[in-house]
Write a structure and sequence with these properties.
Structural class of chain A: alpha+beta
CATH superfamily of the largest domain in chain A: Hotdog Thioesterase
CATH class of the largest domain in chain A: Alpha Beta
Number of helices of chain A: 5
Strand order of the largest sheet of chain A: 1-2-4-5-6-3
Order of helices and strands of chain A: HHHHEEHEEEE
Oligomer: homodimer
Number of strands of chain A: 6
CATH topology of the largest domain in chain A: Thiol Ester Dehydrase, Chain A
Largest interface: A-B, 58 and 59 residues
Number of domains of chain A: 2
DNA sequence: GTATAATTAGGATCAGGTGCTAGGAGCTCA
DNA sequence: TGAGCTCCTAGCACCTGATCCTAATTATAC
């Protein structure tokens, strides 16, 4: 049974190996495990692992999704926007947004949604967050859908006071008060941020 | 010159097309533009664009980086950690962290680094952000390296007051005061967040 | 109408695979 | 000892999405 054990072990290692670095060819993997390329192919077949090019494509697609979802200027989907007045966006939370050891969504995703919305609602070429006060009222579980609503409370000069409330199924999970500064595109001296 | 113009136009379109969806083969692109595959190849050659498989690989590598960098529990690299007392982390900002229209880093990345650090410094199984006050003192440009320092100011029961200051080349760009709540792993009733 | 630029076509070759067939090594069991 | 089994290796034909190279055709400019 030493043979079979070694096979099982190799396949487990193979999984770990590909998780660490998915962009390895069968050739490289074969060398790494001291077996023939065919053996690696059989292993992949048994484990249902796709070939390197597919793995690359899958990852590439993920990257695009991540890019458009998490790294877009507005995090979450914009559902409503009345410039200078109010806005609403929805964010469906994903496992990648949670802590590694539990299913609680990490605060900066909730903040990111609220902050993006606060910046978006201000009617200006460039708007940056100057300061904020946040309250995380209740923890959010991975999979829950967060609806954030932003309202411009007041405006003095280029300073906008924006209030954001985020809810999950109607229950408030987060509130934040943002001071957003509108800045002319031509003004390069950054004194504030978003 | 209509031909040459059409060529220039096609190459511009090609760039935009591939930016939108990089996972297209020459074949598909040829059909899309109504030209032969060879023409697309020549265009790619002139524009210095890599083949589809390379594009996929590049994206895949990015995805891995994004995964490990932005979606890890601690954003930025931990440079120092004394549990319950202080911590320091560094974050080199990337183009993907900036706004689409300028090179200013968006606030939630700065917050994410600070928030992660504040949570990490608290010596507890699970620590969640309950509330925070933030000040974005100065805008950060893409490429700048942010060093965040967190100090536990006080502790009352399971509530920790953590102060975070983020600097770029010694200059303060962000300050935040976080109230972090430590929670026993066994307590499933989420009343606070991180 | 001819020079020049742009496009198309064809063939050889490559990487990194799939799918299939076949053979040998190593172990178990009777 | 040999049959039966799993596991590994090997070889060959084929596929996709490319490469590089040469040659021919078409469009446009002068």
């Amino acid at each position: 049974m030493a043979r079979r054990l070694s096979k099982e072990l190799r396949q487990k290692e193979l999984l770990r190996e590909l998780e660490m670095d998915p962009l390895q060819t069968d050739e490289a993997l074969a060398q790494r495990f001291g077996v023939s390329v065919q053996t690696i192919r059989l292993d992949r077949l048994e484990l249902g692992l796709p070939e390197m090019r597919e793995r690359a494509r899958d990852l590439a697609e993920q990257a695009q999704q991540i890019r458009s979802m998490l790294i877009s200027d507005l995090i979450g989907e914009l559902e409503h926007l009345e410039l200078g007045k109010s806005a609403r966006s929805a964010l469906t939370t994903e496992p990648s947004m949670g802590f590694a050891r539990n299913t609680i969504v990490r605060g900066h995703y909730i903040f990111a949604q609220a902050n993006s919305l606060a910046v978006a609602v201000v009617d200006a070429e460039t708007a940056l967050t100057a300061s904020a006060r946040l309250r995380f009222v209740r923890s959010v579980r991975v999979g829950e859908r967060i609806v954030a609503e932003a309202n411009v409370v007041s405006q003095k000069g280029n300073k906008h006071l924006v209030r954001v409330v985020s809810r999950v199924r109607g229950e408030t999970v987060f509130t934040g008060t943002f001071i957003i500064v509108a800045r002319a595109e031509s003004d390069p001296t950054g004194r504030e941020r978003a």
